[in-house]
């Protein structure tokens, strides 16, 4: 059964995304990629879908506050894999929060994600939306080949389970070859920009041909 994107992606972009899809959301800082990612993940919660957020940018507390502001309330099944707080010395136990040592700890991220998947199964949650904000800080710690190998396993797990993966990246912080290399792992790339103060998106993949730039209501940060 497809994942609903109604009200998040502007028409004529797809309003449903096939299960097992991995989507790369690519946009520069302050273009609204983070909020768009959160909206795509939160869109499934009214239908009983679970949410898993990996953060390499902000601590879990900030992520939860921002996500639940978009969600409009508490989540039934929401877990956060925090790659920031341990390194900064601010990590503290909290329900649904899993800490790894740093954004370079790809093994730790994989272990925690597997644990969340087991928790979802135990809770009877068989549909998950998985958000990763963002791949760019990870590339400050590991080379693209190592990240590629990690993402190959990570996205394959999402695909095999029939979940939805949404990953953010800042193309202005990476060279074109890095973006091209990582994009191979994804079924589609949703490009984001601000144009005259309006957020616009266009989609490559998940359709027969790339779309034109389309405005998104409101300005997201």
Automatic annotation (TrEMBL):
Domain of life: Archaea
Identification of the protein by name: RecA-superfamily ATPase, KaiC/GvpD/RAD55 family
Family matches, as InterPro entries: DUF7504, P-loop_NTPase
A Pfam cross-reference name: DUF7504
The organism's taxonomic lineage, starting at the top: Archaea, Methanobacteriati, Methanobacteriota, Stenosarchaea group, Halobacteria
